[in-house]
Amino acid sequence: MSGDLENLTEKDFSVIKRWNLESDPFAAVKDYSPTKTERRWKAADQIEVYKNYVAKRNNYILEKDFDNYYKKADKPIDFLRWKYLMLRKAWFIMPLGWDKIASKGGKVADFGCGDGDTVQRLIDFIDNYWKKNNIIDKKIHITGIDLNFSRIENAKKLVKSNNKNITFEFNQGSFVGEKINYTDLYFDSALVTGVFEILDDEQFDYAMNEITRVTSFGIYIEDLFEKFPGGYPRDTLGKSLYERKFLTKKRHIIMSEPFSEESLQDPRKLWPNLLDQNIWAERV
User: What are phi and psi of 169, to 5 degrees?
Assistant: First the structure.
């Protein structure tokens, strides 16, 4: 994270709300074009935030054991910051295939769930989808799994469900280099956001093998699509999924915030405007 979340104001929230994601959760798809990806570098704060972002990533690489850092770092978060991040990330973590998850029901896993903000968005999406489509006979249980204990504790405190047919739990655990403690095809659907981009090829293969092993129906993936220090963006996720019997049904390349040549649009400038990919794949 390049910016900060101290002293959030209503103005910060109102800017994100003007991105119109409530009425069009796929606004990022319409906003993207290849030429815009070049023109974003005209913004001076895009360059500045990118340099800061790269410097921080390089420091992580030089000074920290990544596995140890992601497992043991203490990362408390209050409700206001959690809510802002949930709204902010909705631009690039879109509900692609979530209608299929809602229609299917059953057991869902969020691998690398962090503070549970994506689980909360999924809960809200499913609840609204069921109400809109008069679905009353489905049940869904969501399991959030993350390596970091403090983030699991955050999720347990912050995530809520007002629908008795949508339940959830959060467990500390790893799926990188360690076998997931679930039987084959245990989950119907899975979410993986912001995970593969920090895994080297060996770690990625192990994680992908485990996630596809325990998932029977569909997988939603959000991942960075642009090279940065300490990161591993991949344009071959579709191939990797197909090798494991999952076929990509939809895929979008987007930018991580609304385009502007003038300045970054997130008032907190948490990240530079980077390329991102969203994938929905189903077992064949």
Answer: -150, 160
Domain-located, residue 84: yes
Is residue 3 situated within a structural domain?
A: no
Average pLDDT over residues 36-63: 88
pLDDT tens readout for residues 150-191: 999 999 999 999 999 999 999 999 998 889 999 999 999 999
pTM over 0.70: yes
Residue 100 has which token pair?
A: 């299929």
pLDDT for the residue numbered 245: 98
Residue 188 inside a domain? The answer is: yes
Q: Tell me whether residue 1 is in a domain.
A: no
Residue 169 lies in domain = 10-283
- Lowest-pLDDT choice from 44-53, 63-72, 195-204, 231-240: 63-72
| Average pLDDT of the residues in 129-140 | 97
CA distance 37 to 101: 31
- Read off the CATH number of the domain in which 259 is found: 3.40.50.150
Q: For the segment 10-22, what is each residue's pLDDT rounded down to a tens digit?
A: 999 999 999 999 9
The total domain count for the chain is 1
